Batch of 2 targets.
Target 1
Amino acid sequence: NAGVTQTPKFRILKIGQSMTLQCTQDMNHNYMYWYRQDPGMGLKLIYYSVGAGITDKGEVPNGYNVSRSTTEDFPLRLELAAPSQTSVYFCASSYIDRVGQPQHFGDGTRLSIL
Amino acid sequence: QQQVKQSPQSLIVQKGGISIINCAYENTAFDYFPWYQQFPGKGPALLIAIRPDVSEKKEGRFTISFNKSAKQFSLHIMDSQPGDSATYFCAALYTGANNLFFGTGTRLTVIP
């Protein structure tokens, strides 16, 4: 049982480049999330999705885009990479996001923008 | 603005000791308070959670104490072990929201 799988694990980008962080889950969860984790700042929600075709902004959406064409996949797109986007990105999923339902996290993508 | 404030930033405890991590919040709409444990190179994993209608929840060596009037909650790790060395995050959520608000994390080191 793979859970939440994120690729790549590491990536270095140049300023202005674009890339897509991949996330897939095999638990048939309807809710999926993207967080970024910066040192000393905890995790901040970038975007989330409550099901295929439905996405919405979190706390820090600027500079990112998402899509959800299937239940399993929730890619995060950086269009014009900036140094401020250097961070560790985590994808998570949960089944029916209501009180008491835990979010399951992937192992993260460490992204550096130089 | 940090919705959930967590302290200390780092903590060193001797093996067998008690580790205590504290969190505070302002939004009284929060009705679910989970703690996540994160090992290096891994994503956070749910450790234990509490709802505000109880003052304490215990699971093995891990206990959450909750003080609704003070808007504070804490994680106690009894008989701390080197394997407990990790970063711990408190978080909060309210029904109908889709955003877990995380604390800034506490790096716990348990010395053998």
Target 2
Amino acid sequence: EPEVTQTPSHQVTQMGQEVILRCVPISNHLYFYWYRQILGQKVEFLVSFYNNEISEKSEIFDDQFSVERPDGSNFTLKIRSTKLEDSAMYFCASSGLSGRRYNEQFFGPGTRLTVL
Amino acid sequence: AQRVTQPEKLLSVFKGAPVELKCNYSYSGSPELFWYVQYSRQRLQLLLRHISRESIKGFTADLNKGETSFHLKKPFAQEEDSAMYYCALYGHGSGNTGKLIFGQGTTLQVKP
């Protein structure tokens, strides 16, 4: 069964450094998402992406964040200058052909980002 | 405001006991609700969605608009049900893109 994959599983970085988190969504999906979960807190929506542009973003998704689908298979989240509070588990998700509200979102295993 | 509340961080029951994981929501309009489950060292996966009115692994959830609740129930818990359970709401956005709003999650621990 196809799955969403994410790399790396764990990323450690210094404050102020740029990081790129990578995701490969399920191949025939058209809607892509990033969520994050700070330790002990709820899973929070960051951004959704469709047709090569951002569809919606949350207040968390400020100018330090960007997303890209560079080659038709990867979906990346870049944090330009990491802060300590960016430490979290980042989940990528994709959903199917129509993005209808009740279409299932398939989640990746997550990337744990630790900012020192 | 669009919000999901799961009041219990941890629910511990014995095998064979009934389980009810509570979820309340705040949403203006017709909500669409889901339960996601995360087993140990595994990814988040959809357990069930209210629109399907299905029973998965013996779990059911009924949307109660009067009480704004979507509690997850199972009559007889099994040890393999031990996991983290998240209630989620499809949120309004600037497009029909399926943003999910999650509750805090409840850890279900089923003891032998």
